[in-house]
Carboxypeptidase-like regulatory domain-containing protein (Christiangramia sabulilitoris), 818 residues
Amino acid sequence: MRSTLIVFLFFLSAGLFGQTIPGRVINKQTKEPLAYAKIEWNEGRQILTNIDGSFELPLEKDRDSISFSYVGYKTIKVQISKDTRYLQVGMTPAYEQLETVMISNERDPAEVLIEKAIRNREKNDPEKVLSGFKYRSYSKFIIDNESGGMSMQADSTSAAIRTIINEGRAYLSEKVSEHYFSANNIHKEEVLGIQTAGFKKPVYKILGMELHPLSLYKHNYKLYKTEYAGPLATNAFKNYQYKILDTTSGERPAYVVYFNPRREEVVAGLEGILYLDTISLGIQKAKAQLLGEIRLEVEHDYKYYPAKDVWFPSEQSTKIRPGSGGKEIAVFGGTITLGTVQQKKGVLDLIFGSEEVSKNLFLNSLTTNYEVDLDYDGEIKNPGAAIDVYAKATSRDSLYWVENRKIDFTERDKATREKVDSIIQAGNVERKIQVKQAIASGYYPVGFWDVDLSRIFKFNNYEGIRLGFGGKTNDKFSDDFNLNGYTTYGFKDEVLKYGAGTELYLNKKTGTSLNFSFERDIRETASFHYLKGQRTFAILQPRFVNINFYYNYRKYASSVEHRITPKLDMELQVAREEIWQIRQYSFLHNGTEYRDYDLSSLSLSFLWRPFSKFLNTPESNIILEKNFPQFTGHIEQSFSSFDGTFNFTRIGLKAEHEIRRLDRSRTEFILEGNYGFGDLPLTHTFHANPNNPGREGVFRRFSIAGRNGFETMFFNEFFSERQASLHVRHQLRPFLISDHFQPELVFISRHAIGDFDNMAKHQNITFNTLNHGYSEAGIELNKILAGLGLGAAYRYGAYHRETFKDNFALKFTLQLQL
């Protein structure tokens, strides 16, 4: 009965509101789809087919005549009526010489046209031709149910979900922004208003998802965290092939140029059409699609400004929905699997937490630009943050939204705002977002306490199994401060270690805080710790397992942290340490041997990320995109005049850079320098991150490789008072053997050089220094099985040893992602 009623209502609605006829255009001989074939009807109305040749044609009369045309094919006309349910059109190639309006017939006319368009980029790209501009935009971000219904069990959660999906959208966010651009390539978005249905606070990460890239002229076209080759990039002919489909009429005619990827297995590419102005060859309009496991559609519209002779973006829409299967598509930095919107956990999973719910969803983002000023030369405030959320942006009233909406706010949009609260509450979505954000930084929230995941379990040769518990209070406990601490026990050394502290939030927006801490623990001899840039959670720390040279310390510290700009963090620390040895080591200073000593120190550390992208909210500063190079520095001064035993200075500077390419290959560089002078005990000199256990035989030394460790350098083999190191890793593009088996081959080169003034002052220990320069080369084959791989390294140069086995290291590699 229910099915009969649905069918009846379907035909009734078709009769009342008009009929949409689906269909497909193909090559009659090869059966291949014809992308962007032109369909005309009803005295000039026209649409283009999608990249799979599909179309949906609205029938407004009982009978109509439809014309299908495509470059290189014979135009055909087809009669359709209200009885037509599906229309497949086969077109026959026409082998006569194609007529074009191009200058030359010697080369492919499409290549000549695109070559000129690439040369004219400097004249057409608004970011190149204009010294500055600003504009406002209104955006609406929607996650909706395309099918209008789905099968779910009748529990309270599903009922709430079904209500929202059928009567309103599943997710809706609105945003009003002011955008600024200056001649020195500063891009800035100031979010003036934002509201997200169902959430007390906006999901700020949505703001950094590159939903609306401004330019198609760039080398890389970035959309939803994934980079595609630009269709008008300098090397466009390497990645795309082109065909002229048509020319448009009007005051400013345009060439309609079809482009599709030339080497999809190597570089991510789009398939679509460009409308290029016949005079300037600037982009008037563009449409791009991807079809496979999902269907992605992007449309750009531009408006012409005669005074500047430039086409400036006016509107954009982006839609993602389930596809028909086939190739995987990269979105949100991951790939898409059949029937879902994304493979990696992300926005949809946070909102729904259910695969069943997401199967029939589509994601749609629309934006319109207005109040465009192409002569802007004013000041851009706080340029360090790419996106700055205005303090009142989240508390705009309904009148503000009525005045600023530039896209119709439908009855269904209103239903979303009114009813989506139930789905957020039923799915405990805000809790899921809190957990995801905490885990990304190495914590798991339990009530008012964030458990420190790095403290739970570790293992090394000295302590054996190291079990512990630690963490910090979160905002549920207090918005003004946190209490933090840990305790851990080594089952081999049978010693309890612990620490406690507090952080007072002086200004969350600028990251200004006052910290007090106490620790009683052990630390690796000759290790150097940067105050900033070190809090990165890792499932496994490869070197930690094989470290066997520690010293005890008890430390009292107080520090001030402050974010000078969104890209520059600094911390100043005052500390007092009591140190006593574990091994039989002593430091000879002024005729006295010291095993135990006290240090009074002042440290200044910074982390500078000049090219990373940051989001500045009223509450905090969020990194949206980690770009390179980035720099970390630390200077430490120990004073004997403040009841300290020694007077010395230690300085460290580290530069990291990464070159990422569209073919998914990348090259990484880490350059680090450490410099110490004064009364330096061995505990406070430097090592070069050795990672080779001191055991006989290659297989007995088999361990897990680190990212910036010397795999052939034995632990405690070298120490330096001054040293520099360089690590270079070059990963080839993955081998695409299957969807789930894509190993990565990496070539590695590492070098270090160091010096030591007086080794004789360090008693009861023998070591070498790096004054002749240390070198090793390595190779890794990663992600062979579930993140596991194999690697090997070989020592060569000045410190090359006599036997092969003493120069060679065989390693596991492990690359896991949370």
Observations:
- The first helix runs from residue 2 to 17.
- Residues 508-814 form a domain with the Porin fold (CATH 2.40.160).
- Confidence is low (pLDDT under 50) at residues 1-17, 97-104, 147-168, 326-358.
- Residues 388 and 621 are 9 Å apart (CA to CA).
